[in-house]
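Q: Sequence in, structure out?
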Amino acid sequence: MKKNFLATVVSIASLSAGSLFAVGPDTGGSGTQDYSYMLDSGNSISVSRTSSSPKVTGTSTDGTYTNPYKTLTTTSIQAKWDYNGTMIGISQSSPYGVDLNYTTGFMTNLGAKITSSETAILASRGLASGFKIFGGIRLNQFKATVDKPYYGGAGNPTLSKAGGYQYSLDTGTSTGFSIGAAYEVPQIYLRASIQYNTEIEHKNVKVTESFAGATTSTSGIEDYLAPSSTIIKLRSALSPKLLAFLNYRSTQYDGLKVTGPVHTQLGGGNIYDPSSGTDLTFGAAFVISDQLTALVGAARGQAKSDGGNESALSPYGDSSSQFIGGSFKVNDNFELNASYSLTSLGDANADVVVSPGVAGVGSFTDNKATRVSIGTKISF
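A: Exactly. Output:
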């Protein structure tokens, strides 16, 4: 088998994680918070840039809701080096992200934005008989803003953000852990791994609510949980030029409910209440030449349904994706990667507001998203 086959396949597979927003606001489907790159041999630095562009369209008695989503761009960095037989690494990523703002109907200026950062300090070590262990400390932080101008009612006829309800959240940085194990048969590039990311409790949370120009701070009253997740991965060479892989991720968002006292008084209930769910990615990599490897695959994201309508802040159902990718080795130390995925975001009914004080239902259909990733890997 090709000497550099394994390293090439791993890097492009991580760039093509699959579904977008399959479970909660996860940005990378089954590849979100995946630290199994620590199992690979050799010193390296990888940088990837991903741009995701969702597009949803809804209709109700209020009219047509044109696509509220903006393109979401994230950058991830992964580095590792061997220190006396122990691999030491660091990873920087944005595991959660959303950016949307409605511009039509009575939903004008309804929007939400989530940004996040997670730094992981990691280590891995080989054991006897093909087993390895890996894990480390995760430093997690996320911020969110939500705007609901329609709560301003008759006092906010222009539906300005400042004239309605506004919410902002800053969790600060808290610490959690990641731990995993793997079994490998190098001769056939077989690897089976499992990784568990603990939930992270954010206690020093800063929350600010504004309604019709009056601002209320509720910092430190409520804790917020960054979700736990479990990732299972399996891959194996089927021939000297063909490798198959299967990635599974389960994310537990049930513990994360975004609330605010002012929002509750307005009768709004939870501001954001994402569902737990799973992501499944599978595909194959083909060695075309010593320099070029191609990747094809599909992914499926499925959230746990409570039987009710979706939120206008996430107006879609389960997702399915198809993706292609490629890796070009410029030389033994430098590699370029790229991938493209097309995602179908399932049809859904979402709770909307169609006039002052009147709730309605929007039917969102033909929802799609595209995802483009480019990256580079330097080995040394």
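The mean pLDDT is 90.
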